[in-house]
Amino acid sequence: MKPFFTLLLLSLLVSCNTIDSAKEKSNLVDEKTVLETSRYLHPASNTIRFNQLGYFPKEKKIATITGNSDITSISIIDLTTGETCMKGQPYDKVFFPLSGDTIHQFDFSGFQKPGVYQLQVDENRYSYPFEIGEGIYDSALLLVAKSYYYHRVGTDITKQHGMKWHRPAGHPDTNVLYHSATGKKGFVASPGGWYDAGDFGKYVMNGAFSAGQLLHALETYPDLCPDGSLNIPESRNGINDLLDEIKYEADWIATMQDDDGGVFHKLTTKNFAGAIMPHEATEQRYIMPKSTASTFDFAAFLAKMARQYKKYDSNLAEAWLAQAQKAWQWGVQNPTEYFKNPADVSTGEYGDEDASQEQFWAAAELFVSTGEQTYLDYLSGNLPDLTYTYGDGWKSFMRYLGVFTLLDNEGSLPEAIAAQLKEQLIASADDLTNRVQTFDYRQGVNDFQWGSNSDIQNVAFVIAEAYKINPKPAYSDAVFSSLNYLFGHNATGYSMVTGLGDNPPMHIHHRASKADGIVEPVPGFVCGGPNYYKQDANDVNYPADAPPMKSYMDVWESYASNEVCLNWNSPLPYLLMFAIEQRK
Ligand code: G3I
Ligand code: 9MR
């Protein structure tokens, strides 16, 4: 039976809101919590799709039953009593074009009694067990936020904090060589930070962006990952644990600035390593050339971080802010330094040939952190278009981050700008909500690209921000249904997050998970998800003619659908926090 941790949370869940409860919460993120297995009353079939973490009592609840058979009745069985507590009728069959399935749906929104249940379809088909309750996301939030700890570079992942996934430190990065394409010579130290993904690279583009999304969660919901909640080395140091974790990345990113203010694009080997543990990957690492996009991205993140950190260490916060301002100046003077991999390098490129979004985000954070007119002038003349396009991930979600920061600080903006941004954000959210309501499993995406799971979350992120301006139920429903997709209400039957739900990915493209000899992958990671373009090498056996929503394989070989990555995890703490706040 696969590991999961849905049911065991029932007796353990605690309020996520107070520092007083942090001690109990840290107990949740431990090995026992992750590994306990379920007690099914009836063997389950994964043809019945829904959110494997469960539902809030008052939430809309729709199960989708695949398998093309005619279904006449569905019941809800209470697992504590074994009794049938509701009988219902599915809707008529319909065809789902994105998954190629003919399905029935069953709406049990009216059933609101907290408990643990299985759905019974006709005589002998049963779903995974599921919970109805207000605590369904509390521990999931902590596990997902904690996943960044496992990405830490240059430090032991200890048994105390890493549980069974403890491992020796990898990549001290104290002797990193300047690649000749930088025009510089010699070695430099650039230690720490997070691994980007399944690979061991450190990329400013994606690191700063992901940290920015996490910081936005922290700014919006400052109390939901308090000190002591994540069981990381800094727990109990008087600082919010999520902020401590982000600082680990900030300390590395701050080392990536050249003397002239420009920021080096990445720190990687020339080629990807094999499937080995971090400490076994000892190839020479290089600092790669500077880029405009990374420089603005760096400026945005450090300017944002400075605001959060100043109450703990004002000197450090000031130093970061000064670095951010210097980066801004370099970016303005060097607007078209687009990064391309040097000829002898094949690690991730993270290229961006239009740095205007990074610049907008940087201007927004710098303006809010300094109040200086220069930044406001830039913002006023460069308000972005907020029409959402798929693939709006690390490259272009940055403009939204800028807008969110500005609207969170509306008081410092000229009224006309605030009004225009709000109007555009609402228009974007309305469009996206309409997409959610239209597409098969009620997810906001119908073009499934590399990292589609992040696209789905980013759509929900925009909608959740619009909810701040106009708290209408259609918006919160759309966010919830995106979470439902992620945790199992989808065409694959997987919960897309390791260690969460009854059927999570087990063979992610993550080198440590592949090489550590432990059956369960490192927990709390969102995998990339269905990718219709299937850009893997030719050794992945997707189902024949896999339709878009089924272009996913839980195998190590599928880096194009089953890798994990900083920016695929980073919207999730925010979305879970949104949900937790809406649970009543
Ligand atoms: O947007 C186009 C779409 O219009 C087109 O129809 C489709 C088919 O050709 O391609 C789409 O672009 C793809 C893009 O991802 C967005 O989906 C590119 O082909 C594809 O090559 C690109 O993949 C990127 C991948 O690196 C390969 O470079 C991913 O965005 C990016 O997230 C991923 O990032 C990697 C890092 O390089 C290294 N670390 C791991 C990380 C995650 O896999
Ligand atoms: O493992 C690599 C993964 O981390 C990257 O995101 C991906 C795309 O750049 O590439 C993977 O490496 C593969 C390489 O591109 C082609 N040969 C097989 C490698 C995976 O084992």
Spell out the blueprint of helices and strands.
Elements: H1 22-28, H2 31-35, E1 48-49, E2 62-65, E3 74-78, E4 84-88, E5 94-96, E6 101-107, E7 115-121, E8 125-126, E9 130-132, H3 138-150, H4 159-162, E10 176-178, E11 187-188, E12 202-203, H5 204-220, H6 241-253, E13 266-268, E14 286-287, H7 292-309, H8 314-333, H9 356-370, H10 373-381, H11 398-408, H12 415-438, H13 452-469, H14 473-486, H15 511-515, H16 559-562, H17 566-569, H18 571-581
Helix pairs in contact: 3-18, 5-6, 5-7, 5-11, 5-18, 6-7, 7-8, 7-9, 8-9, 9-10, 9-11, 12-13, 12-14, 13-14, 13-18, 14-18
Structural commentary:
The protein is 36% helix and 9% strand. It is α+β, with helices and mostly antiparallel strands. α5 packs parallel to α18 (571-581) and α14 (473-486) packs across α18 (571-581). Strands 3, 4, 7, 8 and 9 form a five-stranded antiparallel beta sheet that branches. It is built from 18 helices and 14 strands. The protein is globular, with a radius of gyration of 23 Å. Ligand G3I is lined by residues 196-197, 199, 201, 348-350, 391, 449-451, 533, 535, 559, 563, 565.
Q: Count every helix, treating DSSP H or I runs of 4 or more residues as helices.
A: 18
Structural class: alpha+beta
Average pLDDT number: 92
The number of strands is: 14
Largest sheet composition:
5 strands, antiparallel
Provide the list of bound ligands, each named once: ligand G3I, ligand 9MR
Strand residues, percent: 5-15%
Radius of gyration, whole Å: 23 Å
Distance between the ends:
33 Å
What is the share of helical residues? Answer: 25-40%
- Low-confidence parts: 1-38
Question: Tell me, what's the shape?
Answer: globular
